[in-house]
Amino acid sequence: MTEAALPRFPRLIDRVIGRLPTLPLDLAMRRFVGSLADRHPSLFSRLGEHATKRFLIEPTDLSLGFLLAPDPAMPRLEAVKRDAAGVCSVACDARIAGPLAALVGMVHGALDGDALFFSRDIVIEGDTEAVLALRNAVDDAEIDLAAEIAATTGPASPYVAQVLEAIRPAAERLTGVALGRPGAMA
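User: That's the sequence. What structure does it adopt?
Assistant: Structure tokens below.
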């Protein structure tokens, strides 16, 4: 699949996101990554020596990126805004960049990371061994982001999961992003 064939995140939605402060998103991501670590305990621990690395996950069609510090003792995920030059200037050990649809599609197993890399739809810089370890850990965990988001809501999670599943087809058409694993939550 070439980058031209990958859907682009809607520019209007991104402009709104880019103007918002990152604190509310950071708080939500803190809860999300904590829940993810609780639900998939081996996800970060299986990174071994790479668990202390910092990964910049940079959707090229968003005005922000995400810095992941997967330390099993205290994993962190935070939003990083692009500077005036359009760069996420933050210290990291590895950078994974590409359209949001490609990045999320890889998490859900809907797209092949190797094919995206060799077609240059995604770019990997820095510690490629750490990126490979992260990719293998994510693949083994079979993460479904919609289910993980629903899980962060505690007792309301079954209802949130129903709502997310109901709006998923429209949201996927609007954003071009696979919002769940193929066949999951259906």
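Strands lie at 55-59, 64-69, 76-81, 94-98, 123-126.
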